Amino acid sequence: xxxxxxxxxxxxxxxxxxxxxxxxxLKGNLFRNLYEPYKNYKVANVNIRNEKDELLFNLDQTxxxxxxxxxxxxxxxxxxxxxNLFNSYKNTYDNLLEDYQSKYGPINVTGSNNSTPFNWxxxxxxxxxx
Amino acid sequence: MFQYQKKLQYPINIKKKDLRxxxxxxxxYGGSNGELGAALRYLNQRYSMPDNRGKALLTDIATxxxxxxxxxxxxxxxxxxxxxxxxxxxAGLGSNYAEHNKGxxxxxxxxxxxxxxxxxxxxxxxADLYEDMAAEQKARAxxxxxxxxxxxxxIIGPLLWLxxxxxxxxxxxxxxxxxxxxxxxxxx
Lengths: 130, 188
Hints:
The complex is a heterodimer.
Chain A: H1 14-17, H2 21-27, H3 51-75, H4 80-104, H5 119-122
Helix pairs in contact in A: 2-3, 3-4
Chain B: H1 19-25, H2 27-30, H3 35-45, H4 52-80, H5 85-90, H6 94-100, H7 125-148, H8 153-184
Helix pairs in contact in B: 1-4, 3-4, 3-7, 4-8, 7-8
């Protein structure tokens, strides 16, 4: 196993270089220095109609931020600042996932409850228009 | 191993049937620069990466690409689900119906089926990572072509988002290949 003594100068300096999870998720990019808009297109909004949509949106944006930091950590495993932020998003994600699954049904099969029919099956699949 | 999460990475709710766009969009499913090729390319290249940074990055980006396959498939499904046979024929999808009915099938916009020749693996990490960077740029360009061809905001939103993911993946692959090149030349 390498000890990865190569330390990339990716200093996050969180306030300046990263979007928050909300803005980063809508843009599809958590990193200000990497963001490339296309022509004059504005970032799309996600349509939130109810409490379920809102909870899913919060879960999605938190998972997205976590995933972006995951990719960064893959190649910069010694970046403590990225790791701290990853862990902070992970805590939020764990709570939101539990909250969502208890209210609206499983996202992971392990989140299914004890009801019949098996609610992993009975809840809608995500390609259906919601 | 892999486990499914019963949600999309980014929401898709297309309200308007559009067979013309479905016919074009399918290329990001089964075309040479599509998401299926990307997912399999990265998953397959992991085994010859020289260290865990490469194995981790290819694993995690490949896994994300499976979510993008699902997003593109969802778009095609929603754009075509209410179409009649006559409408499919008028949109040039009659031969597609003859072969596959309404079943999804990975092809490019011309109906050419997906093939593994779309992804190269040399076993050389630097050559493979440059291939991956090129693949991300080609996918970005294809998303831009597709965005240029529609004015439906329900289609444009997810395409802009997917396009941006190509930008991020390109940057990560580039960062990794630069690390490997430095190490190879003994600069580190």
